[in-house]
Amino acid sequence: MLYREAGQFKTSYQADQAAFPIFQDQLAVWAILAVAFIGVPLVGNDFFLNSIMIPFLIFALASVGLNILTGYAGQLSLGTGAFMGVGAYACYKLTTIFPDVNIVIMIVASGFFSAGIGMIFGLPSLRIKGFYLVVTTLAAQFFLEWCFIRIAWLYNYNPSGAIEVPQREAFGVILTGASATPVTRYLLVLSIVVVMTWIAFNIIRGRIGRSWMMIRDMDIAAELMGVKPLNAKLSAFAVSSFYCGVAGAMMVFFWLGAAEVESFDVNHSFLILFMVILGGLGSIKGAFMGAAFIWILPILIRAAPGWIGIEVQAATVEHLNFMLIGGLIIFFLIIEPHGLARLWSIGKQKLRVWPFPY
Amino acid sequence: MLKKLAIGAAALAMLGAAQVSTAQAEDTIFIPSLTYRTGPFSGGGTPFANGFADYMNMLNARDGGIGGAKIVLEECETAYNAQKGVECYEATKGKGALVYNPLSTGITLQLIPKAPVDEIPVLSMGYGLSAAAVGEKFPWTFTYPTSYWSQMTSILKYIDDNGGLSGKKIGFIYLDLGYGREPIPLLEQLAPQMGFELAMFPVAGKEMQNQSSHWLNVRKENPDWMIMWGWGAMNPTAIKEAAKIRFPLDRFIGNWWSGAHADLNPVGEAGKGYLAANFSGIGTDFPALQDVIKHVIEPGNTQTDPGDVGNVLYNRGLFNAVIVAEAVRAAQAATGKVAVTGADMRVGLETFNLSEERLAELGLAGFTAPIQGSCADHEGQGSIFIQQWNGSDWERVSDLITPMTDVVGPMLQAAADQYVSDKPDWQTQTCG
């Protein structure tokens, strides 16, 4: 009833192939965008923007990146953290070498470095699959971490071994550094994430995305039908690493402000992988749902005792948090192994026929 | 839909924040405490957090706070994770935080640029960026009582006083991260000056608990002394391996993060003779600690295990609280206000003077070296002493060893200049 599509006739191919063919979906997307672009900056305080929304969007973008590789092209990867690091270090080097270039250009440019590195480490995927590929991407993770520690040139020989974000402005507005307001950084991150998600969504619907899915579902059949595994797999690695690299650069420049190698360790690879699995493999909205679940929920749990006025030790809350999140992950994966996105589409189907299910 | 939920949550969060700020009466001071009672380093984080909290609670119980203002202490759990640390910072800064003790180098590095913007000083006691000791370049960051580089020179002085440095071979085993590598430029500069040979043994973070190969190299190189910059599980492992290759442990010195009870208890009798640097007194034989036991531990208003009171990291946490409390007092004296702000606190940290007399008044005579802050000096000219493990406890075995400020000073200055050089709009100050 709520989702009644009856009467929505498509009169052109264009309308039939639209990203959101159902009117209600279009409405929802515009509503979410309006809330995100107008509502959140109006009502959100510093904590909400800095610690919830900005990291959520950044992790969501990284999840979209990993989802392209793992969910759509079927190549398992544990190198996400390191590819994010490549983006961050590349952006740092670029902006310190060319301080006058707009930082947003640099952030997008750093994605290309990450894409290049990702393609190199994607080469083994042409010969090996599944868990064996996990091992080679894990090797990428450790090798790149080693580079971030060992190659002092990457962090400009800083004695502390960290990269620190310099202040950058564009059109008189401070975009990065501690003086940049959370609203500015939030809007920038949001714009980049929206545009890149839109692009990813359309790549996936198009020829390239379909070739990834063919490779994922049966590579021999795909090859027989004329999909080149080399092109498909390497393009998946490139696009995925590009997204992770941009997410990593944004993580340092718009969120953390400074980063050591620990910000790109293997735990982050796992974190993003969990977001993808929990949200739903092969679903863009799943990436957002997974990121929200893994990033926002613990913060809410941490803050909950304060709202209801109970005094609990910070460490106790942290222990509780681990247990609750762990339990919820298992719970959701048992009731729906295909992730939150699948749960959402089941719900949507139910809404379509409600109140007269058949 | 999730976003809408999130916004609802945000509205709730703001309501919560509003309630907190109205609940705060006129004469309170809010001090956030970033702790790591969970995670891989909780063994070290828990006693430190307890020492910090117990001293503040003792001031509340005994004196009713500081200068008539009750202390509101709020713990926020970071698990030693820089991202959670920043989250804690964002969550607590709006409540009128006076000073942040980030308790991790990673968190410190992220808070240093935020401090001038939010006007809340950062006190990184014995960790963080050494260069922040230069007050002219880092008006908002403090590294009392002394920096890593100063500590290293004190250790070298100790070696020099106990058999001489010239012509000796010094081995340096360190955690191969920013923290462990920090003293290397200093060692490389001092080696030719003081005439000792240097051998480096980096231990990667993942090999902390597997150091047999490193110590085989140590045996091959056969240094006269070993110095360690270790942390967490690396420390007991190194000491056990040193004992295994029969390296004389009384020629093995750890820095102040490599010499806690938590590090040596797992080693026990085998670690007898091992030396470590420290800057906060050991044990409970100080009137201030007796007050803590009387007002906080005995009434049970604490999370501390009574056996932990007086151990190395507990006392260090307590010392951190002492510096904060003294700086609040100095800020109150300088501004005439009772409820001071973060900006006042910065003045307090620059003007406070923890002299011998003041330490005695506080019930901490002989606990540590006197510290005096100033506009230019954010390091406070503190000193370290050397302690030795007797198989079951630490014993202090040296007097206070002042660092070689003539060597460290120019290096700190250069590092500070480098930090500021690529930040054209960095806020500095001129000291008269």
List keywords for this structure.
heterodimer; A: 358 residues; mainly alpha; ABC transporter involved in vitamin B12 uptake, BtuC; two-stranded antiparallel sheet; 4 strands; 71% helix; B: 432 residues; alpha/beta; Rossmann fold; 2 domains; seven-stranded mixed sheet; two-stranded parallel ribbon; 44% helix
What does this structure look like?
The complex is a heterodimer of chains A (358) and B (432). Chain A has 358 residues and is mostly helical. Chain A has a single domain (23-353), classed as ABC transporter involved in vitamin B12 uptake, BtuC (Orthogonal Bundle). Chain A contains 14 helices and 4 strands. In chain A, the strands form 2 sheets. A two-stranded antiparallel sheet of chain A has the order 1-4. Chain A has a two-stranded antiparallel sheet with strand order 2-3. In chain A, helix 7 (182-205) crosses helix 8 (207-217) and helix 11 (266-279) crosses helix 12 (284-307). Chain A is globular and about 70 Å long. With 432 residues, chain B is α/β, with parallel strands linked by helices. Chain B folds into 2 domains: 28-146 and 283-374, Rossmann fold; 148-278 and 386-405, Rossmann fold (3-Layer(aba) Sandwich), CATH 3.40.50.2300. Chain B is built from 16 helices and 13 strands. Chain B has a 7-stranded mixed sheet with strand order 6-5-7-8-9-12-13, sandwiched between helices. In chain B, strands 1-2 form a two-stranded parallel ribbon. A two-stranded parallel ribbon of chain B has the order 3-4. In chain B, helix 2 links the parallel strand 1 (28-35) and strand 2 (70-77). Residues 11-25 of chain B have low confidence and may be disordered. At the A-B interface, helix 2, helix 3, strand 4, helix 12 and helix 13 of A face helix 1, strand 2, helix 3, helix 4 and helix 5 of B.
